[in-house]
# Entry
Amino acid sequence: MKGAKAEPEIITRNGKPVSVILPIKRYEELLERAEDAEDIAWLKKARKKPLRYRPLEEYLTDRKARV
# Structure
């Protein structure tokens, strides 16, 4: 594919777009951006939960009991 364009190619069926062909580099960038967006959404959700702190001794006791 020597003469590959840097621009996306839109494939149509019956006059409606159904697929896109784009350079692999651009595809990888889009995947990375989607993953980043998922991470940000998870962080926003996690920040809404109230934080719960407990003494170190309590944590160590619980951890020891699980092993």
User: Anything to note?
Assistant: The chain has one domain: 9-66. The first strand starts at residue 9 and ends at 13.
